[in-house]
Specification:
211 residues; alpha/beta; Metallo-beta-lactamase, Chain A; six-stranded mixed beta sheet; five-stranded mixed beta sheet; 5 helices; 11 strands; globular
């Protein structure tokens, strides 16, 4: 059985010195989670959709340095233009040919989020341009829509979705992150701060067996 410590309030991070806030927490609209990571390089991880992300950002900080995308489904990028207009920032994502993306982030690239470096992990299966971001020093994973709390995993019935590829991507993440992973911040639902590695393992099992 996996445990879930729900982290929906500000800040959601539990690692000392790391400040991560889910700006979309408890919003009753069709949006992804949006994580504000403050520090040396204050960034948004995903932009969300239809909830006033710019105003939400300004409740916490005056400015941000970048917008980093896990992938380009509409619920994750709907407010990207508003973020770019308000803060005059570039957008980082896997596919630089996408109209929302200014700079390509390849598998293995290092991206600064807050005060720490995160390795970009190309994790297709939900969408071809999907990325996860793993910070080794804080032991934090931004999982996008690859995996969720309690063994949930990303849909594979949408365009570019493929279950076998998703299973491989989850396996790659399990090989990359340690069992001591401190936090899992997913694209939907609660963050996990109590045994998050177990939740990824559960997602791997579910993705292999659930039709």
């Amino acid at each position: 059985m996996v445990r879930c410590a729900i982290a929906n309030d500000y800040p959601v991070a539990r690692v000392a010195g790391v400040m991560i806030a889910n700006l979309a927490a408890e919003r009753e609209v069709s949006t992804s989670n949006v994580f504000l990571v403050t520090g040396d390089r204050t960034v948004l991880v995903d932009a969300g959709n239809d909830f006033g992300v710019v105003e939400a950002v300004r409740e916490h900080v005056d400015d941000i340095d970048a917008l980093v995308l896990t992938h380009t489904h509409p619920d994750h990028v709907g407010e990207a233009p508003a973020v770019v207009d308000a803060f005059d920032v570039d957008v980082w994502g896997f596919d630089a040919d996408h109209h929302h993306v200014d700079h390509a982030v390849a598998d293995g690239d290092v991206v600064r989020l807050g005060d720490h470096d995160y390795e970009a992990l190309h994790t297709p299966g939900h969408k071809d341009d999907h990325l996860c971001f793993y910070g080794a020093k804080p032991e934090i994973l931004f999982a996008g829509d690859l995996v969720f709390a309690n063994g949930g995993f990303g849909r594979t019935d949408l365009e570019e979705g493929d279950r076998a590829t998703l299973v491989e991507s989850i396996a790659d993440v399990l090989e990359t992150v340690p069992e001591t992973l401190a936090e899992l911040h997913a694209g939907h639902g609660p963050s996990v701060t109590d045994g998050p590695y177990e939740h990824i393992e559960a997602a791997s099992r579910m993705a292999k067996t659930r039709r």
